[in-house]
Specification:
elongated
């Protein structure tokens, strides 16, 4: 039998991902505040508000989907707990997650207010689609992780 070769040292790089810069966080706060003020102060029935609300909702939904996909990818081999933070979360502020869902909610509110859609219908759509989709993705992720881990 041949002797084993000595192992080379393994170089492990530090995770260099950072939180979003302050200017991006404050810029997103300003955009979100403008969207909230638009939803509250601009009068109903304007067609451009419907288009603006739909655009804000689509952008917010895309941010929410991107945040959910990134969280699943970062925790590929770990279950994500229902109550609490994921095991691997390298950012202090996840800009996609922080502003995706509020943009969808207020975008739907602006569009519903201007198109004379009842608020109960708009809230139901937001709850089912925007909250249900990331929850379903987390259920699927945890199921896949549980199936891939060997039983003791």
């Amino acid at each position: 039998m041949e002797p084993l070769q000595p192992m080379r040292p393994v170089d492990v790089q530090l995770d260099e991902r950072e939180s979003a810069p302050r200017w991006k966080v404050w810029g997103a706060h300003i955009v979100l505040a403008a969207l909230v003020l638009t939803a509250i102060l601009v009068e109903d029935g304007q067609s451009w508000l419907v288009a603006a609300g739909v655009c804000a909702s689509v952008i917010g939904a895309a941010l929410t989907v991107a945040s959910t996909r990134r969280r699943m990818r970062e925790n590929a081999c770990r279950r994500i707990p229902w109550g609490g933070r994921p095991p691997i979360e390298p950012r202090q502020v996840d800009l996609l997650d922080t502003f995706g869902l509020p943009m969808v909610v207020f975008g739907v509110a602006v569009a519903a207010k201007s198109a004379s859609v009842p608020w109960s219908f708009a809230v139901t759509v937001v709850c089912i689609v925007v909250v249900g989709t990331p929850l379903a993705a987390q259920v699927w992720h945890n199921y896949r992780v549980r199936k891939s881990t060997p039983n003791p």
